[in-house]
């Protein structure tokens, strides 16, 4: 079954994706001393997506000898950006006002995804991984 294959190849990515969904829907953002930091929630979004996509890239590169551009662009860039958009829409329209969907959160998600992609591209060029 393909699901088992993905869980075995991408365990950290799957855990991060589940953690993002959990954090976005199952509890309110806790009060911390960092709440005084300007735009802390946007920084949090960016870091969540940077880490999640960083694991996706790392696990992909670990289990493949060459990078298939179309596959990696779909799963390590497009899918996480879409996931961020879906989460923001669900927060805005399906949480009964408990959570809010924000465009800036979506932008922070996308920035995290693209930072992970830039780091991965740097790694790919440094390691001279073949691109297909």
Structure description:
The protein has 132 residues and is mostly helical. 74% of the residues lie in helices and 0% in strands. Helix 3 (40-63) runs parallel beside helix 5 and helix 4 runs antiparallel to helix 5. The chain is globular, with a radius of gyration of 16 Å. The relative contact order is 0.16.
Summarize the entry for a quick read.
This protein has 132 residues and is mostly helical. It has helices spanning 2-9, 11-25, 40-63, 69-94, 103-127. α3 (40-63) runs antiparallel to α4 (69-94) and α4 (69-94) packs antiparallel against α5 (103-127).
Reported for the largest beta sheet, the result is: none
What gyration radius follows from the Cα positions, in whole Å? 16 Å
Helix content: over 70%
| Overall mean pLDDT | 89
Helices and strands, in order, run as HHHHH
How much strand content do the residues show?
A: under 5%
Number of helices: 5
Through-space gap between termini = 26 Å
Low-confidence stretches: none
Total E-strand runs: 0
Kindly name the structural category.
mainly alpha
- The gross shape turns out to be globular
